[in-house]
Amino acid sequence: MSVLPLPEAPVADRTPCITTVVVQPTPFCNIACRYCYLPDRDSTARMSIDTVRATFEAVFSSGWSLPDLTVIWHAGEPLVVPVSWYQEAFELIDALRPEGIRVRHAFQTNGTLITPDWCALFRRWEVGVGVSIDGPRDIHDANRVTRKGQGTFDKTLAGIACLQRENVPFHVISVLSGPSLADPEAMLAFYVENGIADICFNVEESEGDHVSSLLSERSAESRFSEFLTRFWHQSRHDESVRFLREIDSMIERIMDPTHACIENAQVQPFGMVNVDCKGNVSSFSPELLGMKNAEYENFIVGNIHHHSLDDMLDSASMRAMQRDISAGVEACRAECAYFSVCGGGSPINKLTENGSFSTTHTRFCDLIEKVPADIILDALSDLERTIDHDVPLRSAV
Fold it and tell me: Domain residues of the chain, as ranges?
């Protein structure tokens, strides 16, 4: 039986709905995380303003953009490109933006390069800022290191402190590995001590050339479940944590499952438009950008300087990916009890773990979708039992 009522299958070949544009201003990263999957992180190439113009002229003229469009500057360390470049790019995008479309910019950064000048840009344009920090010093510095192998904890924490002094809202993303999973109390204490109230967890996953040792462990699901349950309960009692993505976003999906499929932009052609620094375009999971695969023409559907979005939508690589990704989504719909809160999973994880888009179950699904859903459903079940039968509350907060 399904966890929740399944949404109806979407109509095939419907008009694309662009929810997100992922822009790679540069593939270069100033640090060298040990679990990084990015293939070209040594390249110092930089996107030209002409490529920014071509990208957003194409997106806005297509008529496919949703009224609220998110532009994510990612796929490398975006802050190695100067503030002045972004000021010019943002002004250009705003000038091209049709009336009725709202653009929200977002950065995902390692935090080591944040300065007051960056904070001024973030405030002026109301940029969403995500900082990657994995927890206390020993946990963070185990994987997030400089190109010389030194820890980046102090510089990242200094960047967070700068955001706080400059009154720039931010959230953090922490990649969970074995040591952090073993000690949710230490993780929570770290966030509370440093005034971090909005928290997202990424479980170390297999993507590109990186193979996660964590996902190979049979106990990974139970370990993550125990970690997340303990962290959630204690953070709610402490009241210092304002937002916990794995729980709060899952509650929203459980309470309103009819939007799950629509909101899974990763399985829709041009739900996400991903553009590298040279103007090459991919779709679906943004992590596909830069990866190599002869069957799908390296996941590139065209170049923003030479092809229209209509041409790209009809390209051989787009049609091949859509065929296989759609087959995987429908197989998930047919067999997975969690489809209503997932909408077909992440294509990049299916390809990396299973070798094919047209597959279903991944270990990544077990952790990122099933564990949070089960925790919330168990809590709701306990709450219902308490209300109906006056049974002492066991796990609900």
Answer: 18-265, 266-361
Q: Find tokens 């001590």 and name the residue.
A: 193
Provide the sign of the torsion angle of the four alpha carbons 73, 77, 81, 84, taken in this order: positive
- The Cα–Cα gap between 228 and 180 comes to 11
| CA gap 275, 82 in Å, rounded | 19
Collapsing DSSP states into helix, strand and coil, what is residue 141?
helix
CA atoms within 13 A on the CB side of 154: 3
* Secondary structure letter of residue 354 according to DSSP: H
Q: Beta strand 280-283 with 302-303: parallel, antiparallel or unpaired?
A: antiparallel
Closest alpha carbon to 173 in 123, 265, 75, 245: 245
CATH no. for 18-265: 3.20.20.70
Residue 172 vs residues 134, 159, 280, 351: alpha-carbon distances, Å: 9, 12, 29, 27
Q: Which two tokens stand for residue 268?
A: 């829709």
Q: Model-level pTM greater than 0.85?
A: yes
Q: Residue 92 and residue 94: Cα distance in Å, rounded?
A: 5
Angle at 232 between CA 226 and CA 233, to 5 degrees: 90
How many angstroms separate the CA atoms of 272 and 284, rounded?
6
Residue type, 389: H
| In contact, 270 and 284? CB cutoff 8 Å | no
Taking alpha carbons only, the member of 87, 79, 69 closest to residue 131 is: 79
Centre a 10 Å sphere on the Cβ of residue 84 and count the other Cβ atoms it contains: 10
**Adjacent-strand bridge partners of 65:** 18
- Encoded tokens for 63: 């008529």
The tokens of 161 are what?
A: 């402190």
Q: Which helix (H) or strand (E) holds 20?
A: strand 18-23
Task: Write the pLDDT tens digit of every residue in 187-210.
Answer: 999 999 999 999 999 987 644 454
CA distance 271 to 248: 23
Angle in degrees, 0-180, between the axes of helices 116-125 and 83-96, rounded to the nearest 10: 10
Within 10 angstroms of residue 376's Cβ, the number of other Cβ atoms is: 22
Determine the Cα–Cα distance for residues 181 and 175; give it in Å rounded to an integer: 10
Q: How far is CA 33 from CA 2, 144, 349, in A?
A: 39, 4, 19
DSSP 79: G
Q: What is the pLDDT of residues 231-281, one digit of tens each?
A: 999 998 878 899 999 999 998 888 875 554 447 899 999 999 999 999 999
